[in-house]
Design goal:
This is FAD-binding oxidoreductase. Belongs to the DadA oxidoreductase family. Keywords: Oxidoreductase. By secondary structure, the protein is an alpha/beta fold. It has a single domain, classed as FAD/NAD(P)-binding domain (3-Layer(bba) Sandwich), CATH 3.50.50.60. Strands 4, 5, 6, 12, 13, 14, 15, 16, 17 and 18 form a 10-stranded mixed beta sheet that branches. Strands 1, 2, 8, 9, 10, 11, 19 and 20 form an 8-stranded mixed beta sheet that branches. It has a two-stranded antiparallel ribbon with strand order 3-7. Helix 3 crosses helix 13. The longest helix has 18 residues. The radius of gyration is 21 Å and the shape is globular.
C-alpha cells in the first residue's frame, strides 16, 4: 500500500531518483519513490557505463567532477563488486583535422576547469596502447575517468536508499501531479493521492508527460541507443575509448561493451506524441544531421502513450545494422582479437534535449525536475542526487544549476548540440 503522505515523492527509481532519495533520507526526510516497473530496469541499467569528465558541456563539468569523486566514495563504501567502478582512464583519439580540433577544444575546456587531462602525440598513443591499429593524429587522455557496471551500481544505490528508510514502490506508475492553488499537493497513483510537500520528476522519458499535466512544456525527444557486449577475450587493457567510429569499455572478464563513436552514427529517433509538440525546438538539429537520422513511428509511439500504465515498459528493439557497424569498427581497432563475436545486444531509451544537457529546475512551488539527461544520467547520477537533495531539503543546491533551467528553451539561451545527435 502506498502511504497517505510523505515529505517528498519521487517519480522514477532509476539512478537519479534513488540517489536523490538517499540524500533526502540522510537529511531526515520521509521519502517515497514510485516506479512504473522495477527499480533501475530502464535506462539506468542499460547505459554504456562511462563515468567521464572529458568531453563534457561546460555546464556539466562541475557535476561530472563531483560525480567522479562520489563514484569513488560509493565504491569504497560498498565494494567494487557492488558498483563495478574503476578508473581505467578514457581515451579519445583523433584521425582527421576535425577530430583534432574537437580534441584540442575539449582539452582546453577541461584544463580550464582544473581537470587532469593530457594530449598524447602519436608515439605516446602507440606506447600506451600498442594493440591499437590505425593512423592517428593523437589523443586526449583523462586518467581519472573510468566506468562502472550500470545494473550493479543502480541496484546498490537503490538498496542503500531503502536501508536509509526510503520506500520504493515498484509497479506503481504515477498518473499525474496534483496541484492546489498553484503549488504541489502530491502525486496521484492507482491507489489515489499521496500528499507530499515536494515532488521530483526523475522518470526520464516519462517526465515530459507528467510536466505537461501541470502546464509545463519539456522539449524532450526519445532516442534509442543500441549497445552490445562482445564475447570474452584475453584482457589486454583497462582503457576505455570514445573513438570516431566506435566507443568501448573493457570489463574485468575480458568482454567489451561497445557503442556509437563520436561521429558517423547516431541513435534512432523514435517519433512519439511529444515529438510533434516540441518539434520547433529540435528542427535545427534535424536540419544539421538529417543524413544521419533514422526516424521511426510505431512501437515507441504506443509505448509512450502507455507510460502511466503499471509494469515495465516494452523492451526497446536494438538496431542490428548499427551494432554490426560498431562491432566491425571495434574489430578494426584491435586486429589481434580476430573476428571477435558479439555475445548480446540491447537498447535503451534516452531522453534527449535540444542542447544535449539535462533539465534540472524548480519551475513551480514544490515541483522539481531532473530529467532530459541525454545519455549522461548514469555517470552524473550520484552528483545529481546530492544536488537535487540539497535543493529540495535546504532550498538551494551547492552547485550552480541555472544553466539547466527549463526556461532556457523559451528565453533563447541555448547553444547547439556539440556533436551529431
Amino acid at each position: 500500500m502506498t502511504p497517505s503522505s510523505v515529505d517528498v515523492a519521487i517519480v522514477g527509481a532509476g539512478i537519479t531518483g534513488t540517489a536523490t532519495a538517499l540524500a533526502l533520507a540522510e537529511a531526515g526526510l520521509r521519502v517515497a519513490v514510485f516506479e512504473r516497473g522495477r527499480p533501475g530496469a530502464e535506462q539506468s541499467s542499460r547505459a554504456w557505463g562511462f563515468v567521464r569528465q572529458q568531453g563534457r558541456h561546460p555546464a556539466e563539468l562541475p557535476l561530472a567532477a563531483e560525480a567522479n569523486a562520489l563514484w569513488r566514495e560509493l565504491t569504497a563504501k560498498h565494494g567494487a563488486a557492488a558498483t563495478g567502478f574503476q578508473t581505467g582512464g578514457i581515451l579519445t583519439p583523433g584521425a582527421t583535422d576535425a577530430d583534432e580540433a574537437m580534441i584540442d577544444g575539449a582539452h582546453r575546456q577541461a584544463t580550464g576547469f582544473g581537470l587532469r587531462t593530457r594530449l598524447l602525440p602519436p608515439a605516446a598513443l602507440r606506447a600506451l596502447l600498442p594493440q591499437l591499429a590505425g593512423q592517428w593524429r593523437g589523443a586526449l587522455l583523462t586518467e581519472g575517468d573510468g566506468y562502472a557496471e550500470p545494473a550493479l551500481a543502480s541496484a546498490t544505490i537503490a538498496a542503500a536508499a531503502q536501508a536509509a528508510g526510503v520506500e520504493i514502490h515498484a509497479d506503481m506508475p504515477v498518473r499525474s501531479v496534483s496541484l492546489a492553488q498553484g503549488a504541489v499537493e502530491g502525486v496521484v497513483t492507482a491507489q489515489g493521492l499521496v500528499r507530499a510537500g515536494a515532488v521530483l520528476l526523475a522518470n526520464g522519458v516519462g517526465a515530459a508527460g507528467l510536466a505537461r499535466g501541470v502546464g509545463l512544456a519539456m522539449p524532450v525527444q526519445v532516442v534509442r541507443s543500441t549497445v552490445g557486449r562482445t564475447v570474452a577475450a584475453a584482457p589486454f587493457t583497462q582503457l576505455a575509448m570514445w573513438g570516431p567510429k566506435v566507443a568501448y569499455r573493457p570489463r574485468p572478464d575480458g568482454r567489451f561493451v561497445i557503442g556509437n563513436g563520436y561521429r558517423g552514427v547516431g541513435g534512432d529517433y523514435d517519433i512519439t506524441p511529444n515529438s510533434f509538440r516540441q518539434l520547433r525546438h529540435f528542427l535545427p538539429a534535424y536540419r544539421r544531421n538529417w543524413r544521419l537520422l533514422r526516424l521511426t513511428l510505431g512501437r515507441e509511439f504506443m509505448a509512450q502513450l502507455r507510460a502511466t500504465s503499471p509494469g515495465a515498459a516494452p523492451e526497446p528493439p536494438f538496431n542490428r545494422r548499427k551494432i554490426a557497424h560498431n562491432l566491425a569498427a571495434f574489430r578494426a581497432l584491435f586486429p589481434h582479437l580476430g573476428e571477435i563475436g558479439l555475445e548480446t545486444a540491447w537498447a535503451g531509451r534516452i531522453d534527449l534535449t535540444p542542447d544535449v544537457i539535462p533539465i534540472m529546475d524548480n519551475p513551480l512551488p514544490g515541483l522539481f525536475i531532473a530529467a532530459g539527461f541525454s545519455g549522461h544520467g548514469f555517470a552524473l547520477g550520484p552528483s545529481v542526487g546530492r544536488q537535487m537533495g540539497a535543493w529540495i531539503a535546504q532550498g538551494r543546491p551547492a552547485l550552480d544549476l541555472s544553466p539547466f533551467r527549463l526556461s532556457r528553451f523559451t528565453d533563447g539561451n541555448t547553444a547547439p548540440a556539440p556533436h551529431a545527435l
